[in-house]
């Protein structure tokens, strides 16, 4: 693996979905999945996960999941850099499980520890009557595929309402990114001695 | 003194000690917490210590037995020694020993080791080292030494004790008796204490003198203590060892703490102790009232401000207990007293809450409001001046300043003018005019110019004397002459004006003088002197005459010229006339000639040719030269000074005396009084906002007001307008007289250089007075008899100057002149016409230059300076404006790579192709990051495909034609797919968000109704299952359920013998013949079955995706299985998304077999106990159902015809009425074998059939009218709302991808003549033949060929060319053929089994409706229950589209009478008539070709 001319780079992500802040809701759990481009392939770890149900502590606003993420991607092209899509669910007043938020964020590029807080949103009902019935029946509008939130396509037809935040923590380790000619670290932190980076387009 | 001082010193010391004790206690307590020792022990120790501390100074401590514990350690065995000791000692020792033993045994060393060490360490560092005497130090050291020794002794003692049974060594004994433990440290401690105390005293004294009060002192002590914290620590430290010296053993034992500290008791604090401890930290404020003395400084009596008569506000009410608690709490704080006022109460502001509400009450809210209080809606107005900031120009730091200089004003008329003033003002005005005229010297200038011009002409003429004048010169002379004439005219006007002015001045002056005489007083100081300047008589005369001669000659020349011109004109016209006459005459002659031959018609014509007769002109008169001279002379006398007459020069002075007030009559006096009362001021308005005003100045007698004020306006907004408003005030009231608008100065107008301007103003106020003032706006007269009335309005001149200020370094504080065109136009309008067009942003310089050249601007006129400059720049510089412009000029810089490189790189090419969703690469994963890893092979297939576009490979196809068709279809398909790719990226809400639909009232009602329905209905309906979206499925989740219910009319076996069929009676009437399910246990009878035995034992085998399952065998030709077969389903590549499922091409094969059992037992003897049979399966027929149909329809329920081979050997079918033709329902009933099936998918999948909907979203191009398309949309929407399950079709997409209205496809077309000729007598057979013909054209379902994109309709011509098409094409062609044959035919848009949504053809024949399946060529009667058509959505023919509005959609239960709008809703109705759509079909089909081809297909026969 430690060849001088690697053909792919590795991105190792571990971290956790630390928790969320949904001021009005309680007893929530979350799901995550990754969305990535054609040139990416997960080599190990779980691509999707569903957390435990967490209740809010007395007097604290935060829900804590501390739900670990551990995945390694392999890629040949930074295009389609993976994004994590988090969707949060919880019971409504009638005990129906409804979605409380969708959110997505790119996995950080740079190695190191990152803490991201992503604002969450849910699709809105198309009409007021719909809103009422969906509230009554506990069948709120949902995205057919949560991965929609990681894409720009087709979003223009939706209306969403924002609610809550989810905090994620990532620890990023990369391998061979620099060798392939992609410089993700800022220049002042870049190791000076590294030379002879192979350009992927060797013309 | 010493004694007196001793006292406070003593107290201080005491308190200090108490504090130390306290601290020590705390320490102990901490230790207690750390390692809970014997509690009581500890407690006593503490108490003892305290007691000791308190007593220490007065006397030597009384040693309690408690102090002893150390000692026994030192000499544990001493009590055993036999030396003579005092009994007391022995006793003590004994007692102590037991105690020590316990102490030793159970550890409980209180002092931690660390502390000891720290103490020692610190001791060397104390500040006291310096202060304390050397000997003291020695003492201390010695004590340390002793201590050390002791420790060693103790250790050894402990060891020895264990070893020697408690007997002390000699050394120990010696030590015990020789060492003096107590007094020395005691002394030392005292000494030290004293020294420390002394020092503390000094400190205390130094700190503050006031030591009288105990509390204060204590406070101070705290301070001291804080200040000398280090010291304090050290004192304490010093103290500690001193104290503990007595009980040194404690420390000694502490060393070995680790050895003993093992077992602990659970910590428990007694309740009382806890309370006690809490009390130390917790403070509970008492609720009792604090005495006033506690809250006030000592010896101060509370002072009540109220009693002293001062106002004290009402305090906010606080309950007494709360107040007490608060006061107690505050007092506990160090500076608590500051919170209390003089009256001993907490300081507080008066209650801020007012008792009454300050807001006016709003009564009767719902009643009618006072009309005055009604809110009036005003539409919001956009402020004109908002956001016109100059700062927006991007120069925020600059400030701009306008200087408005209001110097003064002069009234040319004022209501308070007396008559004399009126005249005086007039005189002054005239004089001003005179002066300005004189200044300009216009007359003089013009005269000079005239002379100059004349000289030029003369010179030119002289130059060219005798020679012929060139064209140019002639032209120039003519121009000059023109100029001379113009100038002369101007000069004459000017001269006349001058003269009139002079006359006027003199006349007014005379009037003024008479007025003064008349009224006998003087109001104005005007005086006019007229100077006479004598001139040289002769010269004057000469000039005068010269001038006249000149003029006369010029005039004559002009007149001559004019005459010449007129003459030439006349001559020309005359010529015209003459020639006309000639022609006329010639014509007349001709006509005469002609008339002899021809009619008059011709004559008229020819006359017309000549046109109208030109008017005959009179020759112009010759001008009268003598009259000219007279005219000139007369004019000269009128406007010019007579020769020899002196030049009159008027001079107006204001030096005349004014009659003082006393000598005036009363009316005049009143007027003057009134004048004195008046005062004036001026408001300066910038952008309609008042920014400042001048001081008020009184009106003088001469009606001049001098202000002389300069206002500096710092401006932020663009200057829009600057106005000066003149106000006149009488007493306190003031009224606006007039408003003067001052133009906004150009940015070049700067303060200092700008001249003051006089702005005229006037007001149309009507003012009358009853004194001498003439008023304004009212008529008055100078004459006594009141004639010659005049009306004057208040008017005057305001002298002011507006300019841009000059800032530091002579920088003009003016905004940049190149204003943006948008916001400033109004401000700039007054400045310059060119600026108004936007001189800076003028882009068409050429046009401007052209205009300037054409209008002959005077280049020397300063008014034109800016334009000339502009033009010179333009013409000189020829600004290099490029003739082109570029979009994205910077694109090159942004390019990642050049295009060639991008193409050359395999990697980039791959990435690009993938992003373009080229099918080969669409799902390419992990494009290698390095070029070399991509082989050329990747592109080979793609390139081949691209290349193949042109080359047709005939080998793959049966014939060239098919290859051509395939190629064509491929191309169409590509274009459609490209279109679809665009559509795919077009989302609607339901694609993204899943949301439950709002239940309509109908659904709710149905649900309510359901509550009442029976639990177990007699005819249960299949319930809709919950649909599952296909995405989150995996292998094994989906199952295909095939329910095989029964079969009809299965062929029966023929006996081997050629007997007549056994069951001749059976075959068809399954209704009666149908038997209950036959069990399979019927004994097998071997190969030759007797009569009455089952003729057939059919079973059904279903195969799907390599799994094959079969039913049990039933018996008879009409078996009933009623079995459910469950087949697993796995999607290709595990991809369960709806698109891949749709394109899934697997088929479900349902095969019908006959099971034959052969007994193969060879030995008959074994027959009794052995069964040996052979099972044979004879295939009878099969049904194929594509999976996509099942998927899209979600279930298939019906009876299907089994496709059987034409000849089934060994089987026969009985048909009773097979031979007679006709549209017999019965015939078609029995025609074939049928299977009743129910097929579905479990769980039910949501069919992803949104593509069709989506395609509707994406508008295709269309040549249809917009109105028609809208109507289509409305029609389809309405249809969908009424009956969502009935397909409705109004527009279709043709091969070119354009939307076409569906009726355009229907048009009678001629079938091949051969077909028509085949059965001349039987139209029925002909129709069948035609249907057969159509059905033979290969079927190519669109949904497969166009990747389930959409239906494309090709015209019949295209269809026959391609020889491939969908049901639509077949149906259209069939329908068109039928129409040609004179039948009534419609297209049926409906759903059928198993095709799903499809198109059939309906014909009306002999009062019956027939339904034709165009793909098979079969036809069904309307009441045929085996008709595959299940639902009819709409009917289409050439004229119209009808949508089925009947309650039932099955053909059996419908009426096809389209003329009834209640049953069939027409598209074109009276409201929306048919616009007359032309057909898209070609008039004649290429029947010959196609029929030839059709007939030549090897697979086709008839």
UniProtKB/TrEMBL annotation, chain A:
It comes from the Eukaryota. Its main location: cytoplasm. It is found in: Cytoplasm, Cytoskeleton, Cilium basal body. Keywords: Cell projection, Cilium biogenesis/degradation, Cytoplasm, Cytoskeleton. GO terms for cellular component: MKS complex. It holds the Pfam family B9-C2. GO terms for biological process: cilium assembly. Belongs to the B9D family. Component of the tectonic-like complex, a complex localized at the transition zone of primary cilia and acting as a barrier that prevents diffusion of transmembrane proteins between the cilia and plasma membranes. Required for ciliogenesis and sonic hedgehog/SHH signaling. PANTHER family: B9 DOMAIN-CONTAINING, B9 DOMAIN-CONTAINING PROTEIN 1. Part of the tectonic-like complex (also named B9 complex). This is B9 domain-containing protein 1. It comes from Triplophysa rosa. The lineage of its organism: Eukaryota, Metazoa, Chordata, Craniata, Vertebrata.
Automatic annotation (TrEMBL), chain B:
Pfam families: CC2D2AN-C2 (PF15625), CEPT76_peptidase (PF24656), DUF5523 (PF17661). GO terms for cellular component: ciliary transition zone. PROSITE patterns: C2. Residues 14-27 have a biased composition (Basic residues). Residues 36-46, 201-224, 598-612 have a biased composition (Acidic residues). Signal peptide: none annotated. Residues 1-92, 176-241, 588-639 are annotated as: Disordered. InterPro entries: C2_dom, C2_domain_sf, CC2D2AN-C2, CEPT76/DRC7_peptidase-like_dom, DUF5523, Tectonic-like_complex_comp. Residues 1054-1200 form the C2 domain. Residues 77-86 have a biased composition (Polar residues). Residues 47-69, 225-239, 613-637 have a biased composition (Basic and acidic residues). One of its GO terms (biological process) is protein localization to ciliary transition zone. This is Coiled-coil and C2 domain-containing protein 2A. It comes from Triplophysa rosa (Cave loach).
